[in-house]
Amino acid sequence: MASELALKYGCNPNQKPSRVFMEDGSGLPFTVLNGRPGYINLMDAFNGWQLVSELRKATGKPAAASFKHVSPAGAAIGLPLSEVERKIYWVDDCGELSPLACAYARARGADRMSSFGDFISLSDVCDEDTARLIHREVSDGIIAPGYTDEALKLLSSKKKGNYCVLQIDPDYVPAPVERRQIFGVTFEQGRNELKIDDALFSDIVTKNRNLPAAARDDLAIALITLKYTQSNSVCYVKGGQAIGIGAGQQSRIHCTRLAGSKADNWFLRQSPQVLELPFRDDIRRADRDNAIDLYMGEDCMDVLADGKWEAIFTRRPDVFTAEEKRAWLDRNTGVSLGSDAFFPFGDNIERAARSGVKYVAEPGGSIRDDNVIAAADAHDMVMCFTHIRLFHH
Q1: Is 379 a catalytic residue?
Q2: 14 a catalytic residue
């Protein structure tokens, strides 16, 4: 393998020259099978590969992640899709899907607005089912430990033959110390090799101490996802998939609100009002996603006003009222939440409760821990203090 790869440019077109290389002269741990990766593509690919690899080891199931701008828009393991999930992820016409394809459908489908133009990471060899789903989505590229012949042929035909397909060496182990430069200054630190397992959830600080195995799995998924999400970050998980990720916010409560609003949108998409929207047959999936996002939000008249709805729907849908949305959201329960650093105030718990959160994992260590615990107790939540921080930059 070559020890370096020239790139078209860096983060922006004016940032030249650009390349990736191995300082010790060894071969790069990945191969370009098709297309040409960019600087940000590779940042997404390497972070995504670490995430899905850890999910695979932690759960024993195939995993997928959908990355945008060096943070996951979605991450999931390969559990079967319900009929409603098949509909909201636009895969109800695809027949039976492999576990890996289910993982990608769930990772892509959690926040389809953010996943538009994503870079995909898969924990397992990409099969034809998964490639068929990817082939019809707007995406920049993919990284996986291998591809079947049929899958590689399908993926290589995307974007007029320019779709980026990377094969990672699954046996590659990076050096224990990592370096980067900022402003000409070299930073050095030990890699974050922290293993996320059940031991992190042993310190339960709330009155309710009932933490089922499925909730432990969801909390592990939340923390592994946060480990590769730009901080500050909060992640809501349900049923083996991230349903709301709030990344890169300066305030913890803003992370919780952002992730909570995404989790709410995920659940609102399952409501009869959204499932039964009368779309015209000629409306593409991406345009349907945009219309649904507007319909569920405060700017619903952008798609419901006279002269506008006719271009999207066969008839004008009723407004999805705030009361109807709240009533539907109250049905969402059993959600798990992870935070990459401690909650400084109980307001984060109050916001999380409105999105159905029952289980929480956060480091603890705030001078107001008693206030946070009291808020969790008021909502009969189960909260663990992990005593570890997961900042990622």
Answers
A1: no
A2: no
